Amino acid sequence: MENLAKEVAKGLLKIKAVFLRPDEPFTWASGIKSPIYCDNRLVLADLEVRDIVENGLAETVKKYYPDVEVLMGTSTAGIPHAAYVSNILRLPMGYVRGSSKDHGRNNQIEGANPNGKKVVVIEDLISTAGSSLEVVNVLKENGADVLGIVSIFTYNLQKGLDRLAAANVKNYSLSNFEVLAKVASEEGYITAKQEKQILAFQKDPNDPSWQEL
To answer: What pLDDT is stored for residue 104 in this prediction?
Structure first.
């Protein structure tokens, strides 16, 4: 998994799915100033990186959740990855909407029926894990036996780790913040000083002092 984590990190950096900008921080919706911004939707546009990611997701599902019966993507970013992986593994697939439709059958879950099935959630990015756990809860309320989550990337923020632990939900990510920071430094995307800043941010995103390092 370590080699895969580095390979995925290199791919995300190459296609600029991950931006590292400690000198000009991004502003998250929460107002937090962040040196990192991740847009894994760009994976879909690069065939080489996409193959690495989709095959990596498939292998991770097989390794950690061999009893899986249905894959469920998170709306919207997890949907295409769930579709690719379901094709590789020859499994039924569906996805969970952010909210129920206000017309037709008022569905919140589309595609495969998860009721009574062993389900794995496919996610693109884990930050504080709130949206991922909402999907897990919707699936459980609809009778699914949710085995866990497989994601492309995790920030490994303590808040997200705590939330997952409290909900007793396991997540396995192809790559993570620490690996990405190390690879970015080794590949010359950032300096050693910027790597130190980025890792300080990860320890406590609410503490802006990382910018002064």
So the answer is: 42
